[in-house]
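Please fill in the sequence for the structure shown.

STRUCTURE ENCODING:
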């Protein structure tokens, strides 16, 4: 198979792949190990906090705290043993797995870039229609399932940094201000929305 054929193959998704996929979304800062990962497998969603400085915030929401390497190993083993594809909305998650973990090569073999898949589908099936942008939010708006307004326009990294900085000052989650606690809740909800939205989009593309 030529490189062009591989790219074309990787830009496709089949209904069974979409249904059984492992959907992942990372939150974190540029050029650093991620701080949070959301993992959606069929109807089961979990979040793992990857930054030990956020341990108190994790405990408050009954979340596990693990290293990024452990989280990626878990995903790689699940994908391999259960023959599932790993979906994320760009090459970002794959690049971080390759840079920071030994599970990167396994993830790469199972990886599906939702952005490339969705863009190919749109250009093939909806080329004469309008879409605001090629981001996940743009596609979900096109599908009439837009990002809830309550998330506002603040970036996830802003919320993450706010919570992290205040935990460093105050020590425990209960001592955070209501604003900081709300930022943490919104960040977790936003991360979950990203995973669910990608699953919805890939299911739509696969069934088209």
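FILLED IN BY: designer on duty
SEQUENCE:
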């Amino acid at each position: 198979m030529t490189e062009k054929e591989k790219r074309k193959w990787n830009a496709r998704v089949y209904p069974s792949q979409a249904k059984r996929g492992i959907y992942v979304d990372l939150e974190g800062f540029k050029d650093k190990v991620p701080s949070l990962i959301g993992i959606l497998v069929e109807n089961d969603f979990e979040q793992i906090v990857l930054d030990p400085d956020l341990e108190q915030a994790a405990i408050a929401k009954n979340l596990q705290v693990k290293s990024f390497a452990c989280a990626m190993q878990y995903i790689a083993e699940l994908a391999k043993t259960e023959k599932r594809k790993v979906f994320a909305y760009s090459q970002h998650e794959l690049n971080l797995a390759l840079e920071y973990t030994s599970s990167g090569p396994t993830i790469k073999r199972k990886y599906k870039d939702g952005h490339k898949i969705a863009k190919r589908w749109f250009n093939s099936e909806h080329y004469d229609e309008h879409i605001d942008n090629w981001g996940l939010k743009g596609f979900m708006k096109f599908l009439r399932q837009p990002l809830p307004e309550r998330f506002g326009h603040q970036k996830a990294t802003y919320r993450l940094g706010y919570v992290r900085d205040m935990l460093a000052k105050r020590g425990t989650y209960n001592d955070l201000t209501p604003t900081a606690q709300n930022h943490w809740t919104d960040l977790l909800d936003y991360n979950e929305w990203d995973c669910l939205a990608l699953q919805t989009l890939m299911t739509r593309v696969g069934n088209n």
